[in-house]
Write a structure and sequence with these properties.
By secondary structure, the chain is an alpha+beta fold. The protein has a domain at 483-637: Heat Shock Protein 90, CATH 3.30.565.10. β4 and β5 (563-568) form a beta hairpin. Helix content is 76%, strand content 6%. The protein is elongated, with a radius of gyration of 37 Å. α12 runs parallel beside α14, α16 (349-442) packs antiparallel against α17 and α18 (492-509) runs parallel beside α19 (528-544).
Length: 639
Amino acid sequence: MMRILMFFCFILFQINLLKSQVDTAYLKLIDKLFDNYYNAPQNNMDSELTYLDSALKIAKTHNYTIGITNVTREKGYVFSENGNYVKAMQLLFEALKLDDKTNNNKGIASDLNLIGQSYHQQEKLDDALTYFIKSRDKFTGLNDENGVAMVNGNLGMVYREINKFEQALKCYFFSREYYLKQKDEINISLLENNIGNVYKDLKQYDKALKYFTSAKEGKIKNKKYFSLVTTLSNIGDVYVEQKNYNNAIKYYNEALVFAQSQNSLMLQKDVYLDMSVLYSKQANYKKAYETFKKSTLLKDSIISDKYNNDIAELKVKYESDKKENENKVLVKDNELQSEKIKNEKKQKLLFAALSIIIMLVGVFVFIQYRTKQILNKQLEQINKQIKNQNNTLKILNKDLIDSEEKLTLSNITKDQLISMLSHDLFNPVTSLINYTNLILTSGNNKSNEELLDALIKINRAVVPLKDLLDNMLQWARSQRNNLQVNFEEVNLNAVIFEIISLYQPVANFKQIKIIYNPVTEVIANTDRLMISFILRNIINNAVKFSPKEKEINIETTNNKNSIVVDIKDEGIGFKNEIVNQLNNSLTKDLKGELNASGIGLSVSRRFIELLNGKIEFKNVNETGAEVIISLPPNRANRV
């Protein structure tokens, strides 16, 4: 009963307070406060949301629709920037609904742009592209050139990430043209940096350097030293690609100076990491290790600083909440005192005194209870954050251990490759030297047939060298994390006939028949270079390891489930342990068989996985080997 009485008194107090305010002035104040917030720098998500919640409460109190929509949109942006995408999308779509209801077309265009940004941050590029295009169309309909330029800048980033470089450049140049008219040097510099990145992706390094240099000059002029670090690093990256390492290190050092002047550990970490890559390419492993170590130490320092800042922020927040609670208690006491005076005038002194005592006791108990609840909740949050920090440190430690293991494995692989190259190159090169010396020393005494026989032997010595180099190049390509697959319609019959013609001379020399009589034309949706490498490697091994006067049979079949290429030979077959390794998808590379053929088979299996296919290796009753290649079906083959 007493709590109900207290609530009623509080409501009366709020109603009297609202009646004393002027609605028009309040609404103007909301707009002004919102503009100030939007243009001010924000550093803390909690303080931002506290401000926005206060503004939203005032706007709702006065049923100020525009204010409600603007605050809702801005809250969505804050949540998106801090990684809470579920809440962000909920608020942004709510703002879009409110703007649509009031026919606020400019607000709708802004909502669509922010939704696109949130999808972009979530790496949902197709959705981001859809909403950015809708936003641009809306701004275009409003003749809002500034809005169109802003959205085109966002579209350029998405197009670049999906490798549509021509569209990216079109968007960036459109925005740049507008900002040139506006003489907005800051945005011009940002766009020129982005344009340089696209030309760098296209390997048009002269154009990339042109725009990076222009962006650098603009940022220096406008004292945008923080973003200048990225542009200088980009210039260094271009020179690394051009193998102009002296210029590259010059710009990396300049970037490092500006990063240090901005006291940005994150930027310094990134520059040191770029330097480490450069020194590795120069085979200067000492400096590569030193710069990588500096980058790692800065990364650890960033994590430590963040942890200390979080603790300090929690402490400030706790003291602030404590002071706020004390102020609330004082305000409540003043309210109770005023209520006591009013009651003394209307009721008997004894009843008023008794009511006040009961109210004070109730308030005291309630405040104690609520204070205890708040403190417990804050302690739980602190413990949770500490636990999360510990988990993060464990993950980082695991990543460091994984990196060390990968480096060790890389060194082992490098030693094996050097050993293999020394072994596999020695015999062919020795044969070349012996046969050429023989021709040079006794060329005049040799008949044409003997010279022809010597040239044939030289050719047979060169072919393994070519196969070895081809396999090594493809193996190196397969080790890259950013290996791209270019799917297209490929006539497998034509590819197989082309490869057969390549190895027919060797097969004729060994009197081996290569039999391939396709019944129908087979079209596969695949990468031409990769499938050619796979088939060339398998057919080459079949010819190489088949004795004289044997057969190699190739069959292609096409059905609704898959396209199958079956290659059988009558050679020596595979070792059983090699068959197990080749058919085991969990085996990253062949062990104990690091030679030209082993590398080729390992790369073939890696490529077939990238083509969404399968490859199976068999021994056929100890009379030969069989390799079955399966590719996804292609609609072009269906009737």
